[in-house]
């Protein structure tokens, strides 16, 4: 889902669609979870491939996305259950539908095209809008509250850790000196001023907006929790596919998959294993699967996508 800024109004296109279905291998009578339902593009593919009796549980925290997904998957209404909630609470949702294990799960991380293109949500700096950035509009904390309430030190940590922003200290200092901020344009212009108007391939505010979005929605923390629960929920032979869009997400996914596919996770210098860890999964993809040149040409927002897949032993 996650993307860089692009032309507003572009239609939603499921990223790495064919590759995801190829690796998930949806089959008749299987039970599957789309933990980031979005507009339902991947969900439709899973439901079609698992016909006539495959079941799908679709999760999303964005009520607007859920409304769209209900319409786009209406023909499969008897085989899909859609719930408002986070994949980081997967076990709660599985208990609600009385599933003891699942045959496959997809996580398509980050912000979707339709969220970026809806200026009122505050994810993009392409148009002036309130600094919101919440996936779940029922959530209390907005990006504006973080910007206007955190200390200079706390803002620096967010910008550095979540945005990998080289001028984190200067931007955080400028924010504190010029508060309050209410709109996306105000914040973007401030970051541009810190960079003295110099622009590279992407707008200087891109990393700041990414960092604030990740912090506002606790995305990296939820990703770690979701990976643990998804792996535990897989039936033997079940597969987990994760599509990430920037290095922070991909690093978490890659390291988790590597750890869970090894029998020992003791430090390399330790001669005798004491951890007692046993591999629970095997890697299905060698490295990361990336979009083809053709897909990137058709959907520029897919250019940074990486797909990794594991299978439960």
UniProtKB/TrEMBL annotation:
InterPro entries, A to Z: RsmH, SAM-dep_MeTrfase_MraW_recog, SAM-dependent_MTases_sf
Class of enzymatic activity (EC top level): transferase
Binding-site residues for S-adenosyl-L-methionine, renumbered to this chain: 40-42, 60, 87, 108, 115
Keyword rRNA processing: yes
A Gene Ontology term for the protein's cellular component: cytoplasm
Gene3D superfamilies: Putative methyltransferase TM0872, insert domain (1.10.150.170), Vaccinia Virus protein VP39 (3.40.50.150)
Subcellular location field: Cytoplasm
Top-level taxon: Bacteria
UniProt main location, coarse: cytoplasm
Protein name: Ribosomal RNA small subunit methyltransferase H
Organism: Pelolinea submarina
Lineage of the organism: Bacteria, Bacillati, Chloroflexota, Anaerolineae, Anaerolineales
């Amino acid at each position: 889902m996650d993307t860089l800024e692009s032309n507003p109004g572009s239609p939603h296109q499921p990223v790495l669609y064919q590759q995801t279905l190829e690796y998930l291998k949806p089959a008749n009578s299987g039970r599957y979870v789309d933990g980031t339902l979005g507009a339902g593009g991947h969900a439709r593919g899973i439901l079609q491939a698992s016909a006539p009796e495959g079941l799908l549980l679709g999760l999303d925290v964005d009520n607007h996305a859920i409304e769209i997904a209900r319409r786009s998957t209406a023909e499969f209404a008897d085989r899909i259950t859609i719930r408002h909630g986070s994949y980081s609470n997967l076990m709660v949702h599985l208990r609600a539908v009385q599933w003891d294990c699942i045959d496959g799960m997809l996580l398509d991380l980050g912000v979707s095209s339709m969220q970026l293109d809806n200026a009122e949500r505050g994810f993009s700096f392409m148009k002036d809008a309130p600094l919101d950035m919440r996936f779940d509009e029922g959530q209390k904390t907005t990006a504006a509250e973080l910007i206007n309430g955190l200390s200079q030190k706390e803002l620096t940590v967010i910008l550095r850790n979540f945005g990998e922003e080289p001028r984190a200290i200067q931007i955080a200092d400028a924010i504190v000196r010029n508060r309050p901020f209410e709109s996306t344009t105000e914040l973007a212009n401030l970051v541009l001023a810190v960079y003295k108007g110099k622009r590279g391939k992407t707008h200087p505010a891109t990393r700041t907006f990414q960092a604030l979005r990740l912090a506002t929605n606790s995305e990296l923390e939820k990703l770690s929790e979701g990976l643990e629960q998804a792996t535990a929920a897989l039936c033997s032979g079940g597969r987990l596919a994760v599509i990430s869009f920037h290095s922070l997400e991909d690093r978490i996914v890659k390291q988790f998959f590597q750890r869970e596919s090894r029998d020992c996770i003791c430090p390399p210098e330790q001669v005798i294993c004491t951890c007692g860890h046993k591999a629970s999964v095997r890697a299905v993809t060698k490295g990361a699967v990336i979009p083809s040149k053709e897909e990137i040409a058709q959907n520029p927002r897919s250019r940074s996508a990486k797909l990794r897949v594991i299978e439960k032993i």
